[in-house]
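Researcher: Let's do a round of design. I'm pasting the structure tokens now; please hold your answer until I've finished.
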């Protein structure tokens, strides 16, 4: 088992396995992630604490199910809508999802290849599971007896993480099979949802996904709102409505938070570049105003971020 601390968003994202993923910090404070991760023969599981609120855009690259089970999160949002209290979230291959997590979030996570679930589900049920992932934010009851099954599954995961060093190899294998069996019981779909043939992706969600794909893959530092609207196949007003609906912020606010995050990352990783040069690189004219905005977001000034890194390296 690996106990890992990620002191930055970049480090955290680099540590995620099998995802094409971006994340933007949307609440103030310095980022910190503590994670326990256990690799078993048939699956990977663990738990994770993250200090600041994040907005994720994620696509799972493998033929797997990635399950996130919040432990304390009343403010999880998926595709712009609030999920039920501690509702499990499913990701499947090539499924693009927008997730917003609150500050100080704690969750369990499981990464399991689809083939390992075929002992419990036939091909038709596997395809249904992949389809209903788009209903996780609609208020519908997706799973049968989800609360009791979820509590039992979480207790198995937490017990295994706490006792892993004391267990024999056979006991680990037995615990793994119990977890897979409990997970399969949790993922049983309610009868009314089995009849669904097609689920349409909301237009505003598609607009935001196009915009975020462009923003995060484009290295230009002077991206404009009309430019983002054009690549999102909509007008600037529709772009703003879509961002407010899905992300609860305007495109301009998102770009500002992303710029702060990029500058924060450069301050921590490129210690030989003067702060004034970094700020000018991002087209910032009023450096005093920027320093105040930076302080409001990270609870420290740019020179304090640079100073902490310099002390660690000395």
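Researcher: That's everything. Go ahead.
Model: Designed sequence:
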């Amino acid at each position: 088992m690996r106990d890992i601390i990620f002191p930055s968003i970049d480090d955290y994202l680099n540590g995620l396995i099998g995802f094409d993923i971006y994340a933007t910090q949307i609440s103030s404070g310095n980022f910190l992630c503590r994670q326990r991760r256990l690799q078993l023969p048939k699956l990977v599981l663990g738990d994770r604490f993250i200090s600041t609120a994040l907005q994720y855009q994620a696509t799972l690259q493998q033929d797997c199910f990635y399950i996130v089970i919040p432990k304390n999160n009343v403010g999880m949002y998926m595709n712009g809508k609030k999920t039920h209290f501690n509702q499990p979230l499913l990701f499947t291959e090539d499924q693009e999802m927008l997730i917003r997590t609150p500050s100080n979030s704690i969750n369990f996570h499981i990464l399991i290849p689809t083939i390992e679930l075929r002992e419990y589900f036939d091909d038709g049920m596997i395809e249904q599971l992949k389809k209903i992932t788009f209903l996780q934010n609609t208020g519908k009851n997706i799973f049968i007896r989800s609360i009791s099954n979820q509590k039992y599954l979480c207790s198995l995961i937490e017990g295994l993480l706490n006792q892993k060093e004391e267990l024999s190899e056979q006991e680990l294998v037995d615990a793994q099979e119990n977890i897979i069996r409990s997970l399969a019981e949790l993922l049983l779909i309610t009868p009314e949802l089995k009849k669904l043939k097609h689920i349409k992706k909301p237009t505003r969600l598609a607009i935001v996904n196009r915009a975020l794909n462009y923003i995060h893959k484009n290295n230009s530092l002077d991206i404009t709102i009309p430019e983002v609207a054009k690549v999102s196949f909509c007008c600037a007003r529709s772009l703003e409505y879509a961002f407010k609906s899905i992300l609860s912020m305007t495109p301009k606010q998102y770009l500002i938070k992303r710029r702060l995050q990029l500058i924060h990352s450069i301050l921590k990783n490129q210690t030989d570049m003067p702060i004034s040069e970094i700020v000018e690189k991002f087209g910032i004219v009023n450096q005093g105003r920027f320093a105040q905005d930076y302080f409001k977001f990270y609870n420290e000034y740019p020179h304090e971020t640079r100073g902490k890194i310099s002390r660690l390296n000395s």
